[in-house]
Amino acid sequence: MTFSGFHEEIINPIRIPEQFFHQVLFEIDDLDELKLTLYLFWRFDHMEGTFHYLHLSDLLKDELLVQTMGGGPRKSRKALVEALARAAARGTLLSADIPPKRNRDKLICLNSTKGRAIIGAVQRGEWRTVEPSIRRGDVYANHPNIFQLYESNIGPLTPMIADALRDAEKTYQASWIEDAFRIAVERNKRNLHYIEAILHRWQEEGRDDRKNKQDRRDTEEAIRKYGEWEK
Fold it and tell me: Staple partner for 100: which of 74, 104, 206, 214, CB 3.0–4.6 Å?
């Protein structure tokens, strides 16, 4: 599968320390270690709070990550653990065993000032999860990006449309946006005003999925009411 390319409107940059490119990247000679390191930069950047960390059990639950490790499903979990050990030996990542309750686990973080403080507290038996890392939504969103939805179903983006889409993304939940696009396509009403009218009605009046049969009539009425449908 050939990657179709990056789009200016849908790039969500993540922060990677510049030291990584100067001092670490060209020293890594193992693909699994590189994948895991970049993955963790991404995961940690999708967290809020003071302390950013994950558990080994979190990584092992990520089927997509695990499946790409080791070149095969039988070796993938072992390959992930080995990649973590290599990254920790290199000094890119830090890990420490957590005193087991039922199953032994490891806490993982970047080798940074805060990361070293976390690992030190774990090793001294002083670590308490008093400020958990809060994820900013699901990193594997099951919903297409709103800009992708627009380009795939409506047409080319313009700066004005991109601004409107950003506002919609901040206002409405992803599943509503995806469903509104689907309804517009099914009815051959491929314009942003029609989609906005659907979303506005759902926000104002609530959405009851049991009333799908009334969607068309209610949406047409909402569009006439708010004058947002470009005929």
Answer: 104
CB 12 within 8 A of CB 46: no
Distance in angstroms (rounded) separating the CA atoms of residues 205 and 38: 43
Interatomic CA distance for residues 172 and 191, integer angstroms: 17
Q: Which domains does the chain have, with CATH numbers?
A: 9-135 (1.10.10), 146-226 (no CATH)
- Locate all alpha helices (DSSP H) within the chain, ordered by sequence: 18-19, 31-45, 56-61, 63-67, 76-90, 113-123, 146-153, 159-171, 174-186, 192-205, 215-226
pLDDT in tens, 9-64: 556 678 899 999 999 999 999 999 999 999 999 999 878 778 899 999 989 988 88
The model's pLDDT over 57-101, given as tens digits with 9 standing for 90+, comes to 989 988 888 988 986 667 898 999 999 999 999 999 999 998 765
Instruction: Give dist(CA 12, CA 159) in Å, integer.
Output: 17
Place of tokens 């926000």: 203
Query: Which residues on neighbouring strands pair with residue 95, listed in sequence order?
Result: 108
Structure-token match 């032994």, residue found: 104
Nearest 5°: phi and psi at 26?
-80, -5
Q: How many CB atoms lie within 10 A of CB 196?
A: 22
- Within 10 angstroms of residue 106's Cβ, the number of other Cβ atoms is 18
* Among 100, 161, 99, 94, CA closest to 126: 99
CA count, 13 A, side-chain hemisphere, 187: 16
DSSP 96: E
User: What pTM does this model have?
Assistant: 0.61
